[in-house]
Amino acid sequence: MIGAGLGGLALAVRLQSAGVATTLLEAREKPGGCAAWSIREGFIFDAGPVAITDPDSFAELWRLSGQDMARDVTLEPVSPLWRLSWADGSAMDLLADDALMRQEVARMDGRDLPGWQRLLDLGGEALREGLGGLAQQEFSDMRAMLKAVPTLLQHQGWRSLYNMVSSQVGQDKLRQAFSFESLLAGGNPLEANALHGWRHRLEHDTGLWHPKGGLNRMVGALVALFERLGGAIRLGDPVARIEMIGDRATGVVTQGGWRGDADVIASNADLMHSYRDLLGQHPRGRGHAEKLARKQWSPALFALHFGIRGTWPGIPHRSLLLGPRYEGLLTDIFQHGVLPADQMIFLYHPSVTDPGLAPEGCSVFSALAPVPHLGKLPIDWDHMAPLYADRILNEIERRLIPDIRARIITRHHVAPSDFAGDMRAHLGSAFSLAPVNSQSLCLRPHNRDAVIRNLYLVGAGTHPGAGVPYVLAGAKLTAGLMLEG
Ligand SMILES: Cc1cc2nc3c(=O)[nH]c(=O)nc-3n(C[C@H](O)[C@H](O)[C@H](O)COP(=O)(O)OP(=O)(O)OC[C@H]3O[C@@H](n4cnc5c(N)ncnc54)[C@H](O)[C@@H]3O)c2cc1C
Taking the model in full, what pTM does it have? Predict the structure, then answer.
């Protein structure tokens, strides 16, 4: 098993729970991939998500071996789900509580209440058919795809999420509020298909949960579970090559020279890296990498993590600071590949739920801004990063924390070039292949390679896609295929 991101970890636990002896090989010193972490000057920084929805999808991994997730992780509820704020000073909360959420929608524009209710209903159907249905099916050929067509038609899968949301609610800010979440799967709300509406409904139904100690505790707990089941994990030694005899994978060799034989191999590493680099000596690797190079890749992220003096009980666990533009900004990032002067900032503040993440009287923040990937905007991020971090701080200073610079104790950033280097992510994309219709279901790289039949894929790049719920669903699907043989 190559790569210990959330998808790799979930798959490894599933295999080991089924009695398949599994070795997990991770390039970096820490597991977790996008969900890895760092500790600086007493601040604990989660690099990626800071909360989970649908805790049951994690708990299921423990139940497979009759264990209880609560033994390893304590989950704390988080509310609001999101606070959205706009440059004009207006704000709204997204809440799991129905009555409170109705009040929020009514406060924004009472005429949109029926539309919001309809969006919830549509989201419920999309949840059943999308995450609960299509995400659980293998799409190995066109026949499987044709079977999905009625579902796609019924749920307006030809429409973009933004377009579908706009058909139900009229107010601009509400349109943004109910469409932005596809961004956390790398999808442009203006392009991602309407079935992505399940994300809002999933959060509404299951609430939001913070693993005490940070998301890194969930990663650590998955590793502990895997090891208790007898699995082996090797960190800090990247796989350099998948060894082949004909069209059969026979094992891997790491950069450090470690060699392991395997009957089956699964890769959770970036798709392009898996085919172009790890299989570069095989015609399938070279051919598929050429195809992948022509595909549409999700944008990158610029992440600024900072620990500051002071506590901010009024800033919730997760906020989204929207700028003056929405459609224009998304088009600049996804299509035009320019770094606009305005931004959309996902501001994570996990220490408001869990003060133990920061030293006494201090707070942990992460600010994430979607930016074009390196294929669309091949700039020198070593030069740009300090300037861009300054832009983010200026915005937070103006809108939330007036003397932020004087309060900073520690800060660091992760730029698209770091995703490309450290994570081996093609073009620095933070979410792999874009979730557009032409790259979904059968048209997305399959969970089992079509030529190398004992090579499987798991994680953001393969079906069903990126974002934690999809990646966990993908691990379940890939495990099923591997166990069937
Ligand atoms: C900053 C950020 C915030 C996010 N926030 C959210 C959120 O709020 N909600 C949400 O749903 N999603 C969020 N996401 C998306 C979500 O975190 C990812 O889609 C998901 O974690 C990806 O998991 P994955 O299994 O594809 O593996 P990845 O996280 O991509 O991990 C792949 C692993 O493979 C390893 N690897 C690569 N090459 C090799 C090699 N040659 N040998 C060995 N190992 C290798 C890498 O080091 C890495 O550990 C966020 C992502 C980021 C980056």
Answer: 0.95
